[in-house]
Amino acid sequence: KNEVEQSPQNLTAQEGEFITINCSYSVGISALHWLQQHPGGGIVSLFMLSSGKKKHGRLIATINIQEKHSSLHITASHPRDSAVYICAFARGATNKLIFGTGTLLAVQP
Amino acid sequence: EPEVTQTPSHQVTQMGQEVILRCVPISNHLYFYWYRQILGQKVEFLVSFYNNEISEKSEIFDDQFSVERPDGSNFTLKIRSTKLEDSAMYFCASMTLGQVEETQYFGPGTRLLVL
Predict the structure, then answer these.
(1) Radius of gyration of chain A (CA)
(2) Nearest chain B Cα distance for residue A13, angstroms
(3) pLDDT value at position B100?
């Protein structure tokens, strides 16, 4: 069973829509990461958060540590937001990342 | 802005051949990782490296795999005798202090295809 579950797996939106991607995890963690994987494959870290909310431009990430749930929101979505969005958490003494399966987002003009 | 680099971007090899994937982490980072992503699947941890030795490895990281930091800047992943199932995207990542609330910086990946 995956320790990190994301929903939806696939999401198609029209340009300008507000988008929400959800992440649930089954173990206690200190912090959760949101990452973006571009169509070419490269991975970029978007947020690392351990409580509350963080905002960067049109991206907002929230986390509820007690409920083991995090959300990534994109306001005023744009076709360039099309990518795979992945949540992950760090585990163990080496803080290796455990990844979710990702949400494939397509924003249509 | 400093970034993690990886070479080559793509590699095609025959089954049974050795491959070496190269990474140059960000210069002041101390913790290094290799991850892989088989097409259509999630990213998986392979190995972490600190202070010139492996600090943790996954079940995937068997005797066919090895890592080293030969010259203080490069960080390499070697697969001794490639199998078809080694075909994947391989990502190198690094971070400064290895702390839980710290960002890992990823390289652009090497796409390996084993024929």
Answers:
(1) 13
(2) 21
(3) 66
pLDDT classification of B28: cutoffs 50, 70, 90: confident
**Closest-CA residue in chain B for A43?**
B106
In the block, residue with structure tokens 């990474």: B23
pLDDT at B68 over 80: yes
Distance CA A61, CA A63 (A): 7
Name the band, by pLDDT with cuts 50, 70 and 90, for residue B96: confident
Helix (H, G, I), strand (E, B) or coil at A94: coil
Please state, as a whole number, how many other Cβ atoms lie within 10 Å of the Cβ of residue A84. 19
Bigger pLDDT: B86 or B96? B86
Cα of A82 vs its chain's centroid, Å: 13
How far is B56 from A84, CA to CA, in rounded Å?
27
Q: Are B115 and B13 in contact (CB under 8 A)?
A: yes
Residues in CB range of A71: below 8 A, 6 or more apart: A20, A21, A22, A23, A61, A62, A63
- The size of the A-B interface in CB pairs under 8 A is 68
What is the C-alpha to C-alpha distance for residues A95 and B99, in angstroms, rounded to an integer?
Answer: 7
What beta strand segments (E) does chain B contain?
Answer: 5-7, 10-13, 19-24, 31-37, 44-50, 53-57, 65-68, 75-79, 88-95, 105-106, 110-114
Residues of chain A numbered 18-37 and touching chain B (CB < 8 Å): 30-31, 33, 35
